Amino acid sequence: MISFSSLEFLFRFLPIFLAAYFVLPSKYRELVLLLGSIVFYTIGEPVFILLLIAATALNYLLAVQEWKVGEGFSLHEWQKQARKKYMISAVALDVLLLVMFKLLGTFVDNSLLPLGISFYIFKMISFQVDVYRKEISVKPEFRHVMLYFMMFPQVVSGPIMRYNEGEFDLDRTCSLEQFEEGLQYFVLGLGMKVLLADRLAILWNDLQMIGFQSISTPLAWMGAAGYSMQLYFDFWGYSLMSSGLLTMLGYNFIENFDHPYASKSIGEFYRRWHMSLGSWFRDYVYIPLGGSRCDKKRLVFNLALVWLLTGIWHGNGFNYLIWGIVLGILIILEKLFYGKYINKIPVLGHLYVLAVIPLTWVVFAITDLGQLGVYFGRLFPFLGGAGIAVNRQDFIRYAQNYGVFFLVGIALCIPAVFRFFEKHRKNPLVLLFLLVVFWCSVYFAASSAGNPFMYLNF
Amino acid sequence: MKYIKKCPLFFLLLGTGLLFSIIAIWGRGGIYSGQDYDPMKAPILSVMFTAMNDDIYPWQLLERESVEAGSDNVKVQEEAPAPENEEVQLAGGTPSPSPKATSTPIPSPTPSPEVEQTPLPRLEPLRESTYEEYINHVSADIYGDAGVIRAAEYEFTTVEEGYFDDALFIGDSRTVGLRDYTDIAEHADFYCETSLTIYKVMEENFKGKGTIEDALQNKDYGKIYIMVGINELGRGTTEDFMAKYTEVIDTLHELEPDAKIFIQGIMRVTGKKNSSDAIFNNSNINARNNAIATLADNQQIFYIDINEVVCDEEGNLNADYTFDQIHLLGKYNDLWKQFLLTHGA
C-alpha cells in the first residue's frame, strides 16, 4: 500500500484520507494528516513506526532545548556554546541512527533497514542545523515537527523538504484551484511511473534474463538508455505524485527534478536531478566545509567527500561507491579543467551528458562487479568483450517492443514539451489526456495486483 | 457548477470512477463472474480491468452473444474438477458459467500403416483432483509417472542439425530463448510468443505471422516441437490442462498426420523459486508433465524432457543457468539444442 500506484493506496487509503481531510472542520486538518501518515507508515513498517516516533520526539526535544537557550536579542558566549552542543548532539544522534541501521541492513538483513530512514534522517539533520542557524523564525511546535518528519507523501522517498518550506506556522488555505493543480501533477506522476518506468523496467529485466554476455552491443546501449529513463521516470514520477499530493492538501509544491537530461555538464545534471538531495549536500556538507571559496586542494577534497557520501547514501553495494567516486571525479575534472570549454559549445555539453550519464547509471544498476565488467564489455566490444551466443538482431525486436516508450520518454526529457503541458493544463484535451493516463495506470495496477507476474509473463 | 469548473479533472475522475464501478457491479453476475476480486485490496471497478486481460470488454454487457463468447474465455481456465461441480463453484466463489468439458482422453490417433509396432494406448488418470487441490491452485499428480517411464523407453537417435529443416517449434518465452540464442532458427520455423498458453496456442496470431493452422497448411512439417505450460500453472486443474493439451495435440496430428510431434516436458524452476512460490513450483510442473507424457505413443507422438540436462541433483533448474529462476540465460539454450540433437526419432 505504501506505493502510490497501488490500488490499495489509490482506491482505499487516499479517498478516505481526502474525505476526512476536507470534510472535517479545517482545524482538524493537521491532525488528520498526522493520523493518516501514522497509519500509512505503520502499514509499511509495523515495528519501525516506533523508531520514527522516537526519533521525532528526540529531535524535537533537543531542538526545543536549543531554542530555549538561544532566546534573547543578543547571545552570550555560553549560550552560543550550549546551542552548538545541542545541535551537534542531535546531528550526531541522527547520523548514528542512520549509520547503525544502514550497517544492520547491509550486514545482517535487509529487512532491518527501516522504510524511508535515509530520507527522514536527512530531514532531521537539516531541521537541527536550520534551528541552529536561526533560519526557522517561529519556535517549532511538536505537532508541526511530527507532521514535517512523518507526512505520508514524503516519508518513504522524499523529497527532502526543508522545515521552512512546509510553512507549518501559517494558516493553510486549500483552494479548489490548488487541489486541481496538485491532482494533475499526481496523475502525471502516476502515468510516468506506471506507464513508462514500469514498462521500461521489463526491458532491463529481460537483459538480465538473457545474460549480459549474450546481448548485442546496440542492445547494450539501448539497455543503458532504457535504464536511464526508467530511473528518471520512476523517481520524477514519484516526486510529482508526492508534491502533487501535498499541493492538494494546501502545501507548497517541492520541485525535485528540473529536466536534468537537458543539462550541459554533469555538475549541472546533479543540480537538476533529485534537487532536494543535491541542495541538502550543498547546504549541510559542501558549504560548511568551505564550498568552492577555498584553494584548489580543499575544493577537490570537499567535492570528493560530498560524492563519496552521496554514493554511500544511495545503497549498500560496492557499485554505489564506484558510482559516487566516478561522478565525483567527473565533477572535479569539470570544475578544474574542461568545464569552461564545454560551456562555450552547448551541443558538446549536451552530447557529453547524454553519453556519460547513462554509463554511470549502468554502474548504479549492476551490483555484481563481475557482471558490471561484462556489461561494459558489451557496450565497448573493442575492449575485449566478445560475448557468448550473441544474437546480433536482438535489438530490432526490442526496438519494436519498446520503441514507443523510448519515444514518449525522450519527448518528456525535452523541457519545452513539459512546459507546454503545464501552460495548457486547463485545456480540455490535456484534461482528457490525463483522464486516459489515470485509467491506463489503473489498468496496469489492476492487472498486476492479482497476478504479480503480469509484468514478467513467461 | 462552480466546483466542476474549478476542479474539472477531479470530477472527471470521480464520474468515470462511478461509471466503471456501476459497470463492474452490473457485470458481476455475468461477464465478470470469473474475475477474482478482493474488496480489501482493490475497488470493485478493478474487475473491469482484469477482465480485459481475458478479452472481456465492458461493451459485451450489451450484447447477448458476446456475453457467451466472453464466458467461453473463462471456461477453460476456471473449470472445476470434481463431479460436484456446482457446489464447488459456489463454495469457491468463482462460478464458472461454462458447460463442463470432459476430461476423458480422446481416442488415440490412427497409426501409420507402415509401422509394424502398435502405438501405445493413452493412459487413464489414476484419480481425480480434489477440491482442496482445486481451490489452492495445486496441480494434482493424477497420472503418476507411468507415462513418463513408458515414453522414456523409446530409443531416440542422435541427429544432425539438418533434422530441424522441416521442424516447427511452438512455445512460450522459453522457446523464444531457444530461437534467439541458438542457431536452430536457421533451420526450423518458430511460432513462439511470451506468455503463450495451451489455451491460446491455436488462436494466437504470432504478431501477424498467422496461426499455427496456417503454418501447417503452408508447409509440410516433419516434426512439431511444443513446450508450453508454465504460464498455465495455477489456472484450472490438471484435468483442464490435460483436456486442452490433448485437444491441441490431436488437432496438430490431424492437420499434419505425418509429422512427428515432440511433446517437451515443461522446464522446471530453480530450487529458490520452487520453495518460495505456491504456484510456479516444481511439484506442479512435474504433475502436469506426468499428465502430458501419457499422450506419447512412441510412434508419432513422443515425450522428451529437457529437465534431464538443465537440472541439478535435486531436480531443480540449475541456479547457475538462469538469472530470473525461470528462463535459461541466453548462452545455456545450447544445452537445450544439444539435448534435442540427441533426441531425434
Q: How would you characterize the overall build of this protein?
A:
The complex is a heterodimer of chains A (458) and B (345). In chain A, 73% of the residues lie in helices and 0% in strands. By secondary structure, chain A is mainly α. Chain A folds into two domains: 7-12 and 25-171, no CATH class; 178-449, no CATH class. Chain A is globular, with a radius of gyration of 23 Å. The relative contact order of chain A is 0.09. Chain B has 345 residues and is α/β, with parallel strands linked by helices. Chain B contains 14 helices and five strands. Chain B is elongated. Mean pLDDT of chain B is 85; it is low at 64-115.
Radius of gyration of chain A (CA) equals 23 Å
- Which value, in Å, is the CA radius of gyration of chain B? 22 Å
Note the main sheet of chain B.
5 strands, parallel
Q: Which secondary-structure class do the elements of chain A indicate?
A: mainly alpha
What is the oligomeric state here? heterodimer
The unreliable regions of chain B are 64-115
What best-fitting shape of chain B do the alpha-carbon axes yield?
A: elongated
Identify the biggest protein-protein contact and residues per side. Answer: A-B, 43 and 42 residues
CATH 2nd-level architecture of the largest domain in chain B = 3-Layer(aba) Sandwich
Strand proportion of chain B, as a percent range, falls in 5-15%
Which sequence of strands runs across the widest sheet of chain B? 2-1-3-4-5
Describe the structure concisely.
Chain A is mainly α.
Question: Which descriptors apply to this entry?
Answer:
heterodimer, A: mainly alpha, 19 helices, disordered C terminus, B: 345 residues, 2 domains, 7% strand
Task: Produce the secondary structure layout.
The complex is a heterodimer of chains A (458) and B (345).
Chain A: H1 7-23, H2 29-44, H3 49-69, H4 77-108, H5 117-132, H6 142-150, H7 152-155, H8 163-166, H9 176-210, H10 217-248, H11 266-272, H12 275-286, H13 296-314, H14 318-344, H15 346-365, H16 369-379, H17 394-413, H18 415-423, H19 428-450
Chain B: H1 2-6, H2 8-27, H3 46-53, H4 64-78, H5 85-92, H6 131-135, H7 146-152, E1 167-171, H8 173-181, E2 189-192, H9 212-218, E3 223-227, H10 238-255, E4 260-264, H11 271-276, H12 282-293, E5 301-304, H13 307-310, H14 333-341
